[in-house]
Amino acid sequence: MKKIIPLSLTLSSLLLSQTITSIKYDGLLHLSTDVATEISGIHIGDEFDINKIDESLKKFYKQGYFSDIMVSTSGAGDLLYTFKEKSVISKLVMNGYSSDDESEGVFVSMGLRKGDLYDSKKIESAKKKLIKRIESEGYYDTVIEVTTEPKTDSVALVFDVNKGEKIYIKNVDFAGADTIDLVDLENALANQEEEVMGWLPGLNEGVAHIDQLGYDSFRAKDVYMTNGYLDATVSEPLMRVDSGSYIADITYQIDEGQQYHVNKIVFKGLVDELDENSIRENLRLLESKVFNVKKLRKDIAYIQEQVANLGYAYAKITPNFNKNEKNGMVDIQYSIRTGNKVRINDVIISGNYTTKDSVIRRDVFLTPGAMFNLTDLKDTKSTLGRRGFFEKVDISQERIDANTMNILVKVKETPTGSIQAGGGYGSIQKAMVNASLSDRNIMGTGINAGVSVDYSKISLNYALNINNPRIWDSEYSFGMNLYRNEFDYETQGYQQKSSGVGINIGKQITRNLNGYVGYNYSKNKTDGYFGNSTSTYSSVWNDEDFSYAKSTFSMGLNYDTTDDFYVPREGIILGGSVGHSGLGGDEKFISYSAKAGFYKGLEDYIDYDLIFRYKLRANMLQERGQIHGPEKLFLGGPSSLRGYEPYSIAPHDDSVGKDENGNLEDKRKFRGGLKSVVNTIEASIPLSDSAKMRLAFFYDHGFIGEDSFTEIERKSYGLALEWFSPMGPINLIWGWAINPDKLDRESLFEFTMGRRF
Length: 757
Description:
alpha+beta, 16-stranded antiparallel beta sheet
C-alpha cells in the first residue's frame, strides 16, 4: 500500500460535513462503479466516518488492481476516490537462459503470464523461483536482473540471467560408514561424483544440485533404514567449494548403530471386514528378516488400500516400533485408525472441451452414492489414460464432511483428430507418400474412424475403418473395416493384391479384460516375377499366378492395465486369439496368436524418466487342407525384427547359384513359416519434453520355423526416435542385424506412423 495520505489533510473538512452528498471513482478500469460501491461499503447519505473510509481503502488494495489510491473531499459533501491501476504485463523476455520457444513455459512455472498485472512482490517471487530452478541444474551464484520497459498502458519485463558457474563434485566422503557399500550410499544421493562417461543420458556427470543438497542426508539415512539400521544418524552435508575452479568436496558424518531384525508384526484396530491372515500373506516385510523401510512403506500402502476399499477413505496407518537393543530385534505394530466410511456425493468432470461427460463417466468406477474405493480410483485414472483422448488425467478428492466427498476428475485433452498429407523415405519402400483423415474421438463420442491412402515403391494401400468401443455406453463394441492392399514382396519374388471387409463385435468382460468375435473375407491375387524383374529372387511359390479367397472367423481376449495409450509407464498387456479359415473360401487352416507387453517406469527409483519395456509376439498356423504361401509367416521389418527387410526371413529351400558374372546369387524358394515368436527388450529415455520426443534402445530376438519355433534364429539391435508429433506418433528406426545369414537382406532405416510406442 503506497498512499493513504489524504485523510489527515482533509480531516477538518470531513468534520464540517456531516453527510456524503456524492461519491465519485476516478481512474477505474477493471471495476465498475457499482462494484466499487459494493467493495467500499460507503453510500450517499452516510455520515462521514474516517475509520470507515480507511477500511474501504484497505478493501480496494486487497483487490490487487491498484498501485496507488487517493481520497479527497469538499465542504459540499463530495467524496472522490482517485485510482492508479497497476500496469498490465504485455511482454515477457528471457535473456541468457531459455530459447524463445521454451521461455513461455519457464515463465508459467515462475507464476508469470502475459496479461498479468505488474506486482513487485510477484516479480520478486518469480525471480526466486527462477534462481531455484537454475540451481537445480547445477549453477552456482546465479544473478538475475529484472528491468521494466514502459509501454502505453502496459509494461514489458526483461529478465537478464547470468547463470554463474556449475559446481562439479570431485569427492563424496562418508565418514563412519563401515557396513554399507559406499556405492549404494552415493547412488541414493542427488549430488554424486562424476561417473565414467557421465555425459551420457542417464549417467551422472557430477554436477552439484544445490537445491537437493539439504535432502541428501535423508536419502543416505534411508539406505541404512533399508538395511535394518534403525538407529543410524547421518549429518547434514558439509560442502567445500574451491571458488576458483568450482570443484567441490562433500562430507557426511555417520553413526551407523546396530542392525535390527523383525521379531513380530501385530495389528491394532484392524477392521472386522478384513482377514488378518490374508493381510499377512501379502506383506513384504516378514518376521525374522532384516528390517527394510522400503518394504515397510509398501506394506503400509497395501494395508491402506485394503482398508480404503471398504469405504474408509481417510484411514490412517501408523507404524510403531519397539526395539530391543540387546538382541537386535524390533516389534512392529500397525495402528489403524479408520475414521468414518465415506460415500461419493458427486463426480465432477472438468477440462473436457470436446469429449462428452458420458464418455468419461463410463470409465469412472466411482459413482454418486457408492462407497469410496481406492482401487477403483486408481483404475479410473489408468483406464482414462489409455483411451488416448487425454494428455493428462488428474483425480482428486474433495472432502465435504466426515461421511461424504466429491471426486474431481480433471483432464487435459490431446488432439485426437488429424488430416495428414506427407511422405518420407525408407531403405525398402524408397519414397513414400501418405494421406489420411482420422479421429480417435469423433465429436467427443469416443468413436474411432479413419480413411487413409499410402503409396510407395512396393505398396499401395487404401483403408476405411470405424469402431465404436461402447455402443450406447454399453459394454459392447462394434467395428468394421474395408481395405485394398497391393504389396510387392520383393524378397520373396512376388506381388500380392488383396481386398476385403471385416467386422467384429466385442464385450467388456471386466474393467481390464475384453473379448471379441470377428469375421473377415478377402479376395487375393498373387503374381510371380518369373525372373523378369530386377529382383535377385525367383518366384516364391511357383511359376504360375494364382488367386484365392479367404473366409475367417476369429475370437480373442485382450487384457490391458497400462496407464497411457501411446507411452505407457506402468502395466501389462496380454492377448490371445484363434482364427478358423475354411467356412467358405479356399484357405483351410487354423491360426493362433499370443502377445504380451510389460511396461515399467523407473523414475521413482532412479529419479530419471527411464521406461523399460518387454514385448512378445507369437504365432502358429495349423493346416487343415490348404494354406497358400502369402498366408504363411515371415519375419523382418518394423513390426517384428528390425534391422532386416520386411518379410525377408522364413523357411526356404536352399538354392544358391552364381549369376553370369560369377557373383553369388540367391535362388532360394521361400516356403514360409508355420510358427514364429519375437522377443523385444526396449529402454526409452526422454529427449525433449516440450517436443514430446523420446529415444528408445532396442534388442530383438526372433525365431521362425515349420516344424518347430527355433529352426531359424535372428537377432538385431538399434535405436528408435519416438516422436508424438502434431500428425500423431511417429517412429524413426535405425536397426542393425546381429547374426544375418550370408544372403539375408538388411534394412538400416524404417519409420512407422500411428503405432503406440
